[in-house]
Structure formats: C-alpha cells, structure tokens
Amino acid sequence: MSKFKKKKEGGLPPISTASLPDIVFMLLFFFMVATVIKEDNLKIENKLPFADQIEKLDKKKPISYIYAGKPSARFTNMGTEARIQLNDKFASAKDIKAFVAAERAALREDQIPKLIMALKVDEKANMGLIMDIKEELRKTNALKINYTTKKGDATSNAGR
User: What is the band of 90 on the pLDDT scale with cuts at 50, 70, 90?
Assistant: First the structure.
C-alpha cells in the first residue's frame, strides 16, 4: 500500500461567499436612498390658491399638514361640503387637538416648539372651516401656522 493517495478528479471548488455581505449592504443602502416616503392619500380636492409673496419652508423643521376641501369624486358619500383631512382620514375640527398631540408625541423634545402646522386648503373652501381649524390650533397652543400656496399671480384667485 502506498502512503499517498491520488486526488480524485471531480467536484467544483465551493463558491466563495466572502463578498455576499458587501453586496447585501450595497443593496440595502441603494433602496434606503432611492425609496420615496409615502405622502398622504388625498381624499379631498386640493387646488391650492396662488400667491406672489411666498417663502419656502425649511425642511429641517418638523411640519404637519392639515388638508381642507370638498371630498373628491371617489368620496361623494361624504357630501359636498368642505371637510378636514388629517393624515389619511376625514376628521372634524374637534379631532385637531388629538392630531396635534399625536404629532408632538412623535417628535423629540427639542423639536416640539419648532412644529409648524401647514394648512393645505382648497381655494374654494369656505372661511368658516378655516376659522374653526385655526381656533382649535389656538386651543392646543399650536401657533406656528403656514398657509401652503402655489407661486403665481394672487389677483387670479378672485376670478375663480
């Protein structure tokens, strides 16, 4: 008998998996950067009015949106009067207090005083609804209010 055995032919060498974690992390980072965060699904008509003296909001500050307008064609069962939408749900003016509390609870403590409530109100919404929203915001001490508009000639709003 011989002391040394001959290697048998056959078999492929095992696949190297050393670079697999690198590939997984590259894909993870790609999808984190390329993914768009979902915006609210609007259930109302929201044609913003025009304004000529506008200022862009700083993205570093926390912003919460309150939408107001007539329900869209898919939601005709909700009536034809202007309604309030908070996140993805129809709401009443009384629900704004809980909405502001939830938005504040989701923020870090140093960000709470910087919270801006942005009103995206349809150009045909009645002023009574806007006043109800503002009154509820005053009660919750959410005094930083922004009206979201489109850039354009403000005089064109009167003719609509």
Answer: very high
Q: Give burial (CB, 10 Å; 0-12/13-18/19+) of 141.
A: exposed
Please list, in sequence order, all residues whose beta carbon lies within 8 angstroms of the beta carbon of residue 126, skipping any fewer than 6 positions away.
Answer: 82
Q: What is residue 146's DSSP assignment?
A: E
Q: CB-based contacts of 144: which residues, under 8 Å, 6+ apart?
A: 114, 115, 116, 117
The full length of the chain comes to 160
Residue 154 pLDDT greater than 60, yes or no: yes
Look at strands 63-69 and 116-121 and give their pairing.
parallel
Asked whether residue 106 carries a pLDDT value surpassing 60, the answer given is yes
Q: What digits encode the pLDDT tens for the residues 3-55?
A: 777 666 667 777 888 888 999 999 999 998 888 777 778 888 888 988 888 88
Per-residue tokens: 73: 């064609």
Q: Whole-angstrom Cα distance, residue 30 to residue 53?
A: 38
Question: Which residue, 66, 150, 149, 59, is CA-closest to 100?
Answer: 66
First-to-last alpha carbon distance for the chain, in angstroms, is 103
